[in-house]
Design a protein that fits this description.
Blueprint lengths: L6 H13 L3 H4 L10 E4 L2 E4 L3 H5 L7 E12 L2 H8 L1 H21 L3 E6 L2 E6 L2 H17 L3 E3 L2 E3 L3 E13 L2 E3 L1 H12 L5 E4 H4 L4 H4 L2 E7 L8 E6 L23 E7 L2 E5 L5 E5 L6 E2 L10 E6 L2 E6 L5 E5 L4 E4 L3 E4 L2 E6 L11 E7 L4
Parallel strand pairs: 8-10, 15-16
Antiparallel strand pairs: 1-2, 3-5, 3-8, 4-5, 6-7, 8-9, 10-12, 11-12, 13-14, 13-23, 15-17, 17-18, 18-21, 19-20, 19-22, 22-23
Amino acid sequence: MSTPLSLDLRVRVLAAVASGLSHRQAGVFPVGSGESTLREDDRRVAVPTALEVTGACAMTSESCEVGILFSDVAGSTRLYELLGDRAALAAIETCLGVMSEAVRSSGGVVVKTIGDEVMAAFRGVTQMCRAAIAMQRRIQDLPPVAGPRGEIRLSARVGFHYGPALEDAGDFFGDTVNVASRMVGLAKGGQIITTEECVQRLAPAQRRTMRALDSVSLKGKARRVPAVEVLWRDFADQTMIFRSRTTDPTPAWRRLKLRHQQEEWSFGEDRDTITLGREAGNDIVVTDHSASRNHATIERRGDKWVLIDHSTNGTFVTFSDGEELRVYREEVILWGAGVIACGRSAAGMAFEGLRFHVIGAHDA
C-alpha cells in the first residue's frame, strides 16, 4: 500500500502537472514509485491520484465523504452490431475521452475506466453535477457516426451520489459507490440520475433543474431511495421545481402496452423509462421522417405513465375519446388507450402511429 503524500509533495505534484514537466524533471516521484502517470507528447507526466485531487481522505484505507459518479456509453453493445468492431470501439473511446475531460475540467478525477464506463470522484456535489451536465452537452455536440444503416448519434448515461466511502490505493468502495452505480443503471441515454439526498446538498437555484422520480429499491437497504433526474437540456418548458417527499409510499403500478407496425411491447413495474425516436439506440425506433432522433421518453411515475417530449416538431397524442393533444417540450399523462404520433398529427394520415394501452394492475 502506498504511503500518503505530504502537503509539500502534493503541491509539487500539482505544480508539475500545471507546468507539463515530467516526474523526473520535477523531481516529484522516484522511479518505480507506482504513482499514476499519463502519456502526453511522449513524456511521462505525473498525475495526482484520486486521493490528492479530491482532498477527501487523509490517508488510504480510511472512510471519507466523497462524490462518486459513473457514466457510460448508452447502447454500446448495439453499437458493435450496427457499426462493426473497429468503428464502435473508436466511437466509444471518443465518448470516454469527452467524459474524462468533463470530469477533469470540473475539478474531479477519473478513478478508472472499465469498458465503456468511467468512474470519477469529486470533492463536492456542485462540481459533480457540473461535470455530469458538461458530459451530456459535449456528447450531444459530437457529430453522428456513419454506419451501414445510417447515421447514429452517441449518447451517455450518468449517475452519481455523495456520501461516505472507503478509499484504498486510489479506488473507492462502499455504499456510496453502490448507490451511484445503481443511479447510472436507472438512467437512459441522455439522462442524469442522482438521489434526493444528494440534491439536498445543492444550492436552491440548482435544484430548479431537477425532476423528482419514484423511489427505487436497492440491494441491502431496508428503505427505498428517492431518485431525481437532472434536467440539463435548455428546454425552459421542462424545468420543474424540486420538492422533497414527506412520505415514501410504495406505489401501485399499471402496465403499459405499445404496438408499432408489427411489433408489440409490454412494460410493467420492472421498467422506469422507454425512449422513442429515429435514432437506432432508442427502445422503440420510429421510422417516420417527422420524428426527431431522440423524440420522446415515456416514464413510469408511481401508478402513472408520463410522456415527455424532447423533439423539434412535437408529439401528437390521441386519446380514446378522440381528443388529440400536441405535446411540445412538455409532458402528459397517458391514460386509457390511444395513438402517439411523432412529429405530425395522425388525424387523416395514412401512416400508423404508436398505439398505447394503459392497463391497471388488476387487469394485467
